[in-house]
Fold each of these.
Amino acid sequence: MKKTLLMPFRYNLSSKIFGYFTRTLTQFANGRVVLALEGGYELTAICDSAEECVKALCSNGGEITQLSAETLEQIPNNSAQETIQKVIAVHKKHWPCLTGVQGINTSELHWQTISQRFSSLTVHS
């Protein structure tokens, strides 16, 4: 599976995960998602990732691709952990349910549990 290299954080993500992100976002946003393509460092990887995102948008709310147990249990790399901590620090002022949440050493399974707290929230425009 090809990996996409995102700079400067050097996250090593597969193109499939971008489709997963897009499908997940469309469910939270009632199908209202805008994607912007911001350059790329490897043409094949950016094309594959863009293709997965378009497939997700065209799937009409279809099933979210299931991630493997290994992927769900994997701990984010150091750059991702730092980013998660910064995001939590900024947003917990406005989202009390993030108080006490630690992004470091947190697997996707744990984040899915946390995201269930948000399922009852509504977005106002």
Amino acid sequence: MEFNKNHLTVYSNLPQADYEGWLSKQESTKFLKKWFSLKGNILFYFQKSSDKEPLGIIILEGCSIATGLSFDCASYEIGGHIIKVDRFGNVNRATPFEDIERKELNNRESNNTEC
């Protein structure tokens, strides 16, 4: 299936995102805050939460997630993109990446079971 820019823009603006919120995305040598919206296996990012057209997308299908933790945040490398999740908010709230990791692990475990 093929998508063009218009298809993705329309999809990014549909209601009912799986997760939405501010994350920091590495741009060159520094991290910049972006508004992220996860819909299915597509992670959209915007300059502001009110923007209608995404700055970019990260397709999560086939990506592996590498995690790193520091005192104040968790960082994830997804398909060559580095994303930071602020830990000062609700520390007990699972991030979308933790949910994706859990699903990925469950899929691997279910595929390794013998019948």
Amino acid sequence: EQSLRQEVKPFLDKLAQNEETTRQAQHNIKRIIQNYPKLKSRLRKALEVGGQEVLKEIFYHPVIKIPTKMIEAWINED
């Protein structure tokens, strides 16, 4: 979980620095999840083991807010 958090945090920080709108940030996170199959697989495993709380912790950011249900849907897309 911690390593996933460290992997996702730079993406969130970059989106925050670019002052992306919430919709743009959500779109970009979705694209990142789709384009990095290993990350997607690890996120799926984290979700299975720890549920939405784990996703909430991994994707926590003070500026970028992405609903965990949305992240869960992207992880489960094939």
Amino acid sequence: MSETETTEPSLLRAENISISKLTPELIQRAEAEVNEKENWKERDIQALREIVQNEVSLHSQSDDAFLLRFLRARMFDYDKALHLIKQYYYLKANNPELFVPPKQLKCVFDTKTMTVLPKKCPSGETIYVVSAGHWNPRRFTFDQLVAASIVSLEKAAMDEVTQINGLICIIDMTDFGWQQLRRFGPSQAKKMVHIIDECLPIRFKAIHVIHESTLADIAFTILKPFLSEELRQKITFHGSELSALHSIVTADILPEEIGGHCGSIDADQWYEQIISSETYLTENRENYGFKKVADFNQISDFHSIENSLFRKSQTLTQNFLSVLRRTVLELLELSAKLTPMASKKVLIGASAAAVVGFLFYKTQCPRQ
């Protein structure tokens, strides 16, 4: 029996908050992937618990399962695990709008904007699918989108196989257009990257982007300055040719939208799993955290992270305008090959793109 077959049902149980006995295969994988020593695991959990409890300004959840998630996410480095816990609680305290009850996020899952697939890929990773073009800003805000991402990743991180094998993210940019792009500026990009890279106990093994367009290229140009080199190296762009993706994540576990054979994306099953864990998730969010606002500043390098990201955002001027200029020039070149009526429509589109892009940049780009 494979490690996936042995442990996969854990994603389907109502709660998965206790530590399971790992299969021999997973024990070996845990040592290779996250530096976990089976004979030392209890000692490591207790050591982190004592460190966390000595943080007088922090009232953290301290059960074994919670601490083990953070240890695995940071390769059993106590200091890094503690820092991640602090970052998580800082995020929660400073952004309460991102930690609303899961039932308030049903509008996001109803549009099939994101889901975790029921089956893992052959190498054992969990598959997280984001359909960026399904985000309808008229139905839910960017913060609701991020909140749904956070609760999805928190739920996924409750699964021990995911903690050990990691997560593969597939971002489908089909139908991603101006209505999404105009609401995705540097401040949103910075927030998103900071959360997935610095605040949650989840390991992204790879990020695959498919069906990207010119507007999607602009979105990733905005995102790029905030990505760490490690995270940047994990991103692969596939366009509409999915054979390379299917060599990693086989078509027999993928939905039709990604060239798979498992029917259409079903976000309802994932939302139901999140709701099944709502009590556990809500308890952690409501009952734990920093004891007072002043203690947030005890996260020594959070402000340095903010300053670093702000400096990186200054490079967006050249990158963003370069992509926008190329887009407008392509439209102008196209207009010369069309009939007068069609050419007029393209020129209007080019002008609108330039104006919208300029206003978008002026309103979204951070200022000193």
